[in-house]
């Protein structure tokens, strides 16, 4: 680090000011000369029709046959709503057209190939081979102020089209190219339409005989060059009768068609195309080229076809993408403990921007394939097959076009892991049939037209005659599962029409049958809310965190359980009374397909759950309120009545201002009215499930199991039903008065 004294700092400060002033002066000179400055590039000062204009339009470079022909400082610029260019720079020097200009008459003459165009400065009327045409913008004499030079400017689009030049405008360029002089259908023409290439199995090819052409709204490509040289099919052409023959031994395809005919033969059956096969003569090379309607022929040969407008090329994709197989020896088949993967194949289908890749994994033990775990994490889909060996030499393939970037097989301890890296987060479906696991990765799967369920998680194909009335569901949230139940046996149907998965939280989908129903059991990575909708040809399951699916969420807690019986009297355990009222009786109130109020129980069986886990459960499911049910006990049999507790340490408020204290009072008041117990008030206490909850929480002591009068009530079935109904009604009244805002 340098040390400066005060004097040195002053000198240094003056030096910096000097440099700054020098730079500003230099910049100013540069701007005035038009050599540097972003500001200068924003406009060009020109004068025409006796007026000076600051032209702020974007200036475009002009190319001809890929070579730049516009001169620096005289690019194409918009004048009177048309891109204008100097006629001599672009058409005389650039395209090598024969050009003359008369200063006296102000007439411009441009001749290129068989076309002569005549224009006059200041006039919109022009003549092309003697025929009158109207220009959008008249040619102009334009004076460039900074360069002190005059240019005769013409509308480039009108001139290019009149001279049969191919014209393409991008954001930075105007691209001109020489026309193709072609003869077909008995006439010679200068073709200026689409000129494309070929992308076959992800490799791009530039065609030499003729490019892809758009004729009468259909794409044509040169048959011999595409079929023989690019696709490596067996190709022949009989010049005497105009018949072409194409065969693909691998796909068992035998195809033929004839010039000037719209019929083709495929495997001895005759079909009709919309357009004829054509013989097109390229006058530049003097070659006759057989061209076929691209879409019809490619699809007939069992390849996928797509016209990529942006890239200007026909995309052709093999349907059968690869097949890796190995014969399994008798020794390997004898090992019944390990699953041997001996065949992997992939097929590809893409039509009209929708399609799929279908992967087939064949092994020796179908039961192990049934236990495969298939998961999606953003763009990556993994298939983990336990206790398996991979017998094939090949284990990686890259680039499945629009769908998959990479397919690879790896070993993870005793499992085989198949990884699909997709180009996007894509839906998938899978099914196991015999000893083959098939997984379909879907490209641009048609989502729901119903905007409320556009973000579906599962799409379940709908068997014929099945309506939503025949569909029920069961939530096994404690095990992070739910089940969709359809009346009837549709196991085979769903094997052929698998469930489509579109949610990273889906861990597994299993199809089974029991008791006259088909079960679709969905395993998830976390507790999920879900709702089932019916569409025309499928059921759609919307799945998300519970508070994104349900309007209201309640956690009901049956106190005690398992090895903790709670209070006891005359052989009756508190845990059983709590469970019967708040779960056994109340669960019937909250059935159906995604009701407004969703209830989660801390326990659904006689199990022990810690207080900490009970309180934490409310946060896990995004609950709005927490209600715990208990029975009181005392050494005195005279102690009877209902009391409801809350914690002063729980200061949580609902969206609409509900507090634990308010809720405790509401439930106590209702219970006293509905079941007729003695009023012991609303009280505070440091009960764990109330104190440590993240939402308004209460603990109900319904009555004294030890009480002389309460015991007979608590053990009475009618009383129990009234208590369950009272709590249910209080929940409804609570959310009516204090809505969640969802």
What is the helix content?
A: 10-25%
Structurally, the number of domains stands at 5
Low-confidence parts lasting 5 or more residues at pLDDT below 50?
Answer: 1-11, 26-41
| Ends distance | 62 Å
**DSSP strand tally:** 57
CATH superfamily (homologous) name of the largest domain:
Zn-dependent exopeptidases
Average pLDDT, rounded to a whole number, is 88
Strand content is 35-45%
CATH topology of the largest domain: Aminopeptidase
CATH architecture verdict of the largest domain: 3-Layer(aba) Sandwich
- CATH class descriptor of the largest domain: Alpha Beta
Q: Which of globular, elongated, flat, extended, rod-shaped describes the shape?
A: elongated
Structural class: alpha+beta
> What Rg, in angstroms, do the CA atoms define?
40 Å
- Supply the number of helical segments: 15
Biggest β-sheet strands, sense, barrel: 10 strands, mixed
């Amino acid at each position: 680090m340098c040390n400066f004294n005060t004097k040195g700092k002053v000198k240094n400060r003056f030096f910096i000011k000097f440099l700054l002033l020098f730079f500003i002066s230099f910049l100013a000179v540069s701007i005035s000369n038009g050599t540097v400055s972003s500001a200068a590039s924003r406009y060009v000062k020109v004068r025409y029709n006796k007026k000076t204009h600051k032209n702020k339009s974007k200036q475009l470079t002009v190319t001809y046959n890929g070579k730049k022909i516009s001169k620096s400082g005289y690019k194409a610029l918009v004048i009177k709503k048309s891109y204008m260019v100097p006629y001599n720079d672009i058409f005389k020097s650039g395209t090598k057209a024969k050009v003359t200009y008369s200063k006296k008459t102000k007439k411009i003459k441009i001749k290129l190939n068989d076309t002569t165009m005549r224009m006059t400065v200041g006039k919109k009327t022009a003549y092309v081979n003697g025929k009158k045409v109207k220009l959008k913008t008249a040619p102009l004499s334009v004076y460039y102020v900074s360069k002190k030079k005059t240019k005769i400017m013409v509308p480039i689009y009108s001139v290019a089209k009149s001279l049969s030049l191919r014209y393409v405008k991008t954001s930075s360029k105007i691209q001109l190219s020489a026309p193709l002089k072609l003869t077909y259908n008995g006439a010679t023409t200068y073709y200026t339409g689409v000129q494309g290439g070929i992308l076959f199995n992800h490799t791009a090819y530039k065609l030499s005989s003729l490019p892809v052409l758009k004729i009468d709204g259909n794409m044509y490509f040169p048959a011999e060059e595409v079929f023989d040289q690019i696709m490596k099919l067996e190709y022949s052409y009989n010049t005497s009768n105009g018949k072409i023959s194409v065969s693909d031994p691998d796909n068992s395809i035998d195809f033929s068609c004839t010039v000037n005919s719209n019929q083709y033969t495929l495997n001895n059956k005759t079909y009709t195309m919309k357009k004829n096969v054509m013989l097109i003569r390229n006058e530049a090379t003097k070659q006759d080229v057989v061209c076929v309607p691209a879409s019809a022929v490619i699809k007939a040969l069992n390849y996928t076809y797509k016209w990529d407008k942006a890239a200007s090329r026909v995309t052709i994709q093999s349907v059968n993408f690869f097949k890796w197989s190995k014969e399994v020896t008798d020794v390997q088949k004898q090992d019944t403990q390990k699953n041997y993967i001996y065949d992997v194949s992939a097929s590809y289908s893409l039509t009209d921007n929708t399609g799929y890749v279908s992967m087939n994994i064949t092994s020796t033990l179908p039961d192990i394939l049934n236990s495969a775990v298939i998961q999606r994490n953003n763009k990556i889909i993994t298939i983990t097959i336990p206790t398996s060996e991979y017998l094939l030499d090949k284990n990686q393939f890259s680039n499945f076009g629009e769908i998959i970037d990479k397919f690879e097989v790896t070993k993870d301890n005793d499992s085989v892991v198949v990884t699909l890296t997709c180009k996007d987060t894509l839906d998938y479906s899978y099914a196991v049939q015999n000893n083959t696991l098939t997984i379909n990765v879907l490209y641009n799967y048609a989502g729901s037209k119903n905007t409320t369920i556009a973000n579906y998680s599962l799409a379940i194909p709908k068997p014929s005659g099945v309506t939503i009335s025949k569909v029920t569901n069961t939530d096994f949230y404690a095990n992070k599962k739910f089940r969709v139940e359809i009346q009837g046996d549709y196991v085979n149907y769903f094997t052929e029409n698998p469930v489509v998965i579109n949610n990273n939280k889906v861990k597994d989908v299993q199809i089974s049958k029991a008791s006259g129903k088909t079960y679709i059991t969905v395993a998830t990575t976390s507790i999920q809310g879900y709702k089932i909708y019916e569409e025309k040809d499928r059921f759609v399951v919307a799945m998300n965190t519970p508070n994104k699916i349900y309007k209201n969420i309640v956690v009901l807690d049956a106190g005690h359980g398992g090895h903790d019986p709670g209070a006891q009297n005359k052989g009756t355990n508190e845990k059983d009374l709590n469970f019967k009222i708040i779960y056994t009786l109340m669960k019937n109130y909250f059935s159906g397909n995604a009701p407004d109020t969703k209830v989660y129980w801390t326990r659904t069986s006689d199990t022990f759950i810690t207080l900490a886990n009970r309180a934490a459960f409310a946060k896990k499911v995004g609950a709005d309120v927490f209600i715990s049910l208990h029975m009181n006990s005392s050494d005195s049999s005279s102690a009877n009545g209902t009391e409801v507790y809350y914690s002063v340490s729980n200061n949580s408020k609902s969206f609409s201002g509900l507090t634990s204290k308010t809720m405790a009072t509401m439930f106590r008041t209702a219970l006293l009215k509905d079941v007729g117990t003695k009023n012991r008030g609303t009280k505070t206490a440091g009960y764990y499930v109330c104190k440590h909850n993240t939402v308004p929480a209460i603990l109900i002591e319904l009555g004294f199991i030890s009480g002389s009068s309460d015991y007979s009530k608590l053990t009475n079935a009618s009383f129990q039903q009234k208590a369950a109904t009272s709590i249910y009604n209080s929940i409804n009244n609570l959310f009516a008065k204090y809505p969640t805002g969802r």
